């Protein structure tokens, strides 16, 4: 059997490292808007970045007044966006220094930065290394020039190679890259070319996601107008199967549906999300979670700045997650992990009727070869990864009766 059908290939549960709590810093600036993007970003405006750093410092000072995160030792720090690597080395160093001054960041904390290949240079990477960065995750998406142009990415294939050479020269401990499969007019042969080129850079971690297009994105509008076609479900599945063969063969073990890493280079920050851990979000559009409560900053640089300038936290959209909501999140987040979820943690969230319905559906899906229940843990089988959304939906239906 191949890697998508072999139940025996599933790893056994291991003691988890301290995934969280974590800090997420949203840096909203981008040089341009990619044609598939729906994240909150601010285009251009380099003059706004210096004031952004000052506003972040104000927000940190406001957060430490709140008791929720005052006595917390943070295990991860993640700079996402946007394009965090648009901050200068000096600006980045100032933010990290202030984070360390305001919060208890574990000396062994994982510190990650998302970057575009064209925005990395030796000076900036040296600043990252001095600041204690342990992972740089590069938004590669594709190594084909035609696909990069269509996505309106601001880099070319040569920029990626130069970025990885510079990261190695700077001594960055962990290097990661993101890819997108299922691009318009792609097939397994074209994606295989990207995959082989990406592996030639020697990354320690690879994330690969199926293209999802917001309805209002530029690329979605182009496809509706007849400019290209998305691959069939069968072809997209072939591209995913290629990932699941080639990456483990290159030493990157799958630990989540879309994530592969060399042993010891798995993203602790992302795993904290998948296990329902606590995290603090800083910057516009950032989300936070603690003890079953979730809240967010506004998706507006202007409104976020107004709030912190007025000595007020911009927190809004607060919700409390009840037991049923917690159970649902354990299923649709936790089952993404190859290790799956602990049934001993899931079942106490449910009443007796829901537990009975869920057990019956699990048994049925086990017989169909889509779930594996062993040693108190529930996991997707590898052949279920391509059907993960359907399997999770089937389980969630049982929670609602």
Structure description:
With 401 residues, the chain is an alpha/beta fold. It has two domains: 11-274, pyruvate-formate lyase- activating enzyme (Alpha-Beta Horseshoe), CATH 3.80.30.20; 323-399, Arc Repressor Mutant, subunit A. Helices cover 40% and strands 21% of the residues. The protein has 14 helices and 17 strands. The protein has helices at residues 47-63, 89-102, 122-131, 145-151, 157-170, 188-200, 218-224, 233-249, 268-274, 301-309, 323-334, 343-346, 352-367, 388-399, and strands at 22-27, 29-30, 42-43, 73-81, 104-115, 135-141, 174-181, 205-210, 253-256, 259-261, 279-282, 287-290, 293-296, 316-320, 341-342, 371-374, 377-380. The strands form four sheets. Strands 9-10-8-7-6-5-4-1-11 form a nine-stranded mixed sheet, sandwiched between helices. Strands 12-13-14 form a three-stranded antiparallel sheet, with no helix packed on it. Residues 1-15 have low confidence and may be disordered.
What brief labels describe this structure?
401 residues, alpha/beta, pyruvate-formate lyase- activating enzyme, Arc Repressor Mutant, subunit A, 2 domains, nine-stranded mixed sheet, three-stranded antiparallel sheet, 14 helices, 40% helix, disordered N terminus
Derived from helix and strand composition plus strand pairing, the structural class reads alpha/beta
**Annotated CATH homologous superfamily of the largest domain:** tm_1862 like domain
Q: Tell me the span between the first and last alpha carbons.
A: 36 Å
**Looking across the biggest beta sheet, what order are the strands in?**
9-10-8-7-6-5-4-1-11
Overall number of strands: 17
CATH topology of the largest domain: pyruvate-formate lyase- activating enzyme
Coarse morphology: globular
In DSSP terms (H or I, runs of 4 or more residues), the helix count works out at: 14
C-alpha Rg (nearest Å): 21 Å
Mind telling me the CATH class of the largest domain?
Answer: Alpha Beta
Q: Average pLDDT, to the nearest integer?
A: 92
Uncertain segments are 1-15
Residue fraction in strands: 15-25%
- Major sheet description: 9 strands, mixed
What percentage of residues falls in helices of 4 or more residues? 25-40%
Number of domains: 2
Q: Mind telling me which CATH architecture of the largest domain this is?
A: Alpha-Beta Horseshoe
